[in-house]
User: Which sequence fits this backbone?
């Protein structure tokens, strides 16, 4: 049985032991079988060397439809930060809130808020109490999401450690709107959607009308793959330098570490390694994943049930095993 490229496999459960030899361990069909067995997993696309080698919908929406990517939105906003830096709208990542968007700082905020840098926001090292997890509901129930995030107590000194917080990236999205004079939706569509040829529907806005900078965006699976390929290809797509190569390189270098998954974290990307291969992950609630392995010319997109959690010790751990123990080794063998 030849390797199937550029088409969707026929859905349906097939026991791994029942597959023919060419579809056994180490094949893309075996990868599909492993993914299908994960009942939260909706769909999977794998590209190797720019060629689609696996594309299957197990359950859920069609592959061409946009679906919620949850906190993959944070990685999108990180990319838009790089685009703003490339255009000089942000002078540097050392620029502070006071430097670039003083109007966002609420009256009565801790003086340290004004000194929070763009790098501390994009790496979620602002030091402020998190608005994610148990705090998320109260945060989105507030009358001003930016002010609420910036008025929270400091739990760490800015720049000292990662406190995963939806509010930090929402503040960053608000900064991008302030410095550009455009909504986050317009920025996402013009600076990423248009050059990559991917649809970005409008999504949730806060009480002030700002688009949520850290959650609820939607992309199609192939849009997710294109975004991953943009980073694999050093910021270049279809002959256009969409993001600077320097930004991409810096984004994929560790700046801090997640206390939950213990993966390193760069500018919007979780960073890991298996064997000799370094990989980068954009990760969203429920198991929405973009994985890029530059050394193998590999990009993977996974969508999952957005209503069910995907904890590091649960379903996200299963997805990480699928990537590290099945997808990456198969890509290695194909490359060899």
Assistant:
């Amino acid at each position: 049985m030849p390797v199937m490229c550029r088409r969707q496999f026929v859905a349906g459960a097939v026991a791994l032991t029942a597959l023919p030899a060419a579809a056994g361990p180490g094949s893309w069909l075996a990868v599909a079988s492993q993914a299908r067995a994960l009942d939260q997993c909706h769909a999977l696309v794998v590209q190797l060397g720019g060629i689609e080698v696996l594309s299957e919908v197990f359950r859920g929406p069609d592959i061409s439809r946009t679906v919620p990517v949850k906190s993959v939105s944070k990685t999108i906003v990180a990319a838009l930060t790089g685009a703003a830096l490339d255009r000089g709208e942000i002078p540097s990542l050392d620029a502070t809130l006071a430097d670039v968007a003083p109007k966002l700082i609420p009256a009565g905020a801790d003086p340290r808020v004004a000194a929070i840098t763009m790098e501390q926001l994009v790496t979620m090292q602002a030091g402020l109490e998190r608005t994610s997890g148990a705090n998320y509901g109260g945060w989105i129930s507030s009358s001003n999401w930016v002010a609420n995030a910036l008025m929270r107590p400091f739990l760490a000194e800015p720049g000292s450690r990662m406190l995963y917080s939806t509010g930090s990236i929402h503040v960053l999205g608000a900064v991008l709107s302030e410095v550009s004079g455009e909504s986050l939706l317009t920025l996402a569509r013009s600076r990423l959607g248009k050059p990559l040829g991917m649809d970005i529907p409008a999504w949730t806005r806060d009480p002030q009308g700002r688009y949520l900078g850290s959650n609820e965006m939607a992309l199609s699976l192939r849009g997710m793959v294109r975004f991953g390929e943009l980073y694999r290809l050093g910021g270049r797509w279809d002959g256009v330098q969409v993001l600077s190569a320097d930004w991409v390189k810096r984004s994929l270098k560790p700046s801090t570490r997640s206390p939950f998954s213990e993966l390193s974290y760069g500018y919007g990307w979780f960073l890991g390694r298996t064997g000799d291969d370094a990989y980068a992950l954009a990760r969203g609630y429920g198991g929405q994943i973009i994985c890029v392995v530059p050394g193998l010319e590999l990009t993977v997109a996974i969508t999952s049930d957005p209503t069910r959690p995907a904890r590091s010790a649960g379903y996200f751990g299963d997805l990480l095993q699928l990537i590290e123990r099945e997808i990456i080794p198969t890509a290695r063998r194909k490359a060899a």
Notes: The longest helix spans residues 315-335. The radius of gyration is 20 Å. Confidence is low (pLDDT under 50) at residues 1-22.
